[in-house]
């Protein structure tokens, strides 16, 4: 039985913003307030609204597993994915804060807006499964914002390369979750499958925008950080 994501239109993340369009200049205080606003909205359950419809809405009925143990496991997986999207918000915001070129900064902010869909969808599914978002989200937001800001300081090529590597790792992570979610749980699978399509597109677009391949030690370090996040937020 194959499962087709109901909405296979990729999010247009990291658009090829033209360097010739005139950027709106934000003062450092504006940027600080915008970052604080994003952090509050990201970390306050129920305050993020996706722009696209939740892919689960096109599935039939409630596909929550009858087995309570399995439902808890899937809620745990979605909590991990939700924290991943919290981190995505923070990473893009951090990168936008220190991006050198205005069109790269705008592209990062646009990417963060489009990741809000994933954040909202994951949160909705966690609630349906009777779970709650991770209590560690503020910690991971702060950590990811700092990492994003450092990536931005390293230069736009490296910052875009960081996006490519992050999204590639997210795609592999989503594959592992799709292998664990039963075919009957169409609502969870619909969300994960659309997210996978989007994240793959984010990686491709960042690479085509000039992202440099990261050295192997940096890729390994990112993988370890991701494992720590996955291990802890599944439980807390
Ligand atoms: Fe995402
Ligand atoms: Fe993404």
Structure description:
- By secondary structure, the chain is mainly alpha-helical.
- It has one domain: Ferritin (Up-down Bundle).
- It has helices at 28-43, 68-98, 102-128, 137-153, 156-180, 186-208, 216-235.
- It is globular, with a radius of gyration of 17 Å.
- Bound molecules: fe (ii) ion (2 copies).
- One fe (ii) ion binds next to helix 2, helix 3 and helix 6.
- One fe (ii) ion (FE2) is lined by residues 85, 88, 115, 118, 195, 199.
Mind sketching the topology for me?
Elements: H1 28-43, H2 68-98, H3 102-128, H4 137-153, H5 156-180, H6 186-208, H7 216-235
Helix pairs in contact: 1-2, 2-3, 2-4, 2-5, 2-7, 3-6, 4-5, 5-6
User: What is the CATH topology assignment?
Assistant: Ferritin
> Total number of helical segments?
7
Gyration radius (Cα, Å) is 17 Å
Domain tally? 1
Brief description of this entry?
Helices cover about 65% and strands about 0% of the residues.
Notable features of this structure?
binds fe (ii) ion, 0% strand, globular, 7 helices, Ferritin, 236 residues, mainly alpha
């Amino acid at each position: 039985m194959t499962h087709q994501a109901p909405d296979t239109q990729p999010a247009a993340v990291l658009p090829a913003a033209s360097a010739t369009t005139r950027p709106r200049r934000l003062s450092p205080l504006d940027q600080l307030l915008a970052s604080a606003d994003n952090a509050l909205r990201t970390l306050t359950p129920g305050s993020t609204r996706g722009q696209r419809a939740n892919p689960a809405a096109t599935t039939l009925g409630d596909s929550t597993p009858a087995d309570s143990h399995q439902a808890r496991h899937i809620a745990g997986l979605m909590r991990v994915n939700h924290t991943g999207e919290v981190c995505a918000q923070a990473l893009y915001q951090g990168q936008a804060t220190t991006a050198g070129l205005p069109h790269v900064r705008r592209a990062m902010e646009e990417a963060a807006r489009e990741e809000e869909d994933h954040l909202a969808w994951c949160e909705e599914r966690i609630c349906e499964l009777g779970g709650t978002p991770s209590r560690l989200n503020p910690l991971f937001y702060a950590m990811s914002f700092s990492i994003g800001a450092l990536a931005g300081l390293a230069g736009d090529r490296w910052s875009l390369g960081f996006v490519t590597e992050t999204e590639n790792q997210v795609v592999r992570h989503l594959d592992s979750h799709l292998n664990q979610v039963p075919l009957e749980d169409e609502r969870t699978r619909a969300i994960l499958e659309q997210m996978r399509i989007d994240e793959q597109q984010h990686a491709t677009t960042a690479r085509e925008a000039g992202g440099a391949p990261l050295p192997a030690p940096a890729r390994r370090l990112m993988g370890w950080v991701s494992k720590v996040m996955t291990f802890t937020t599944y439980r807390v």
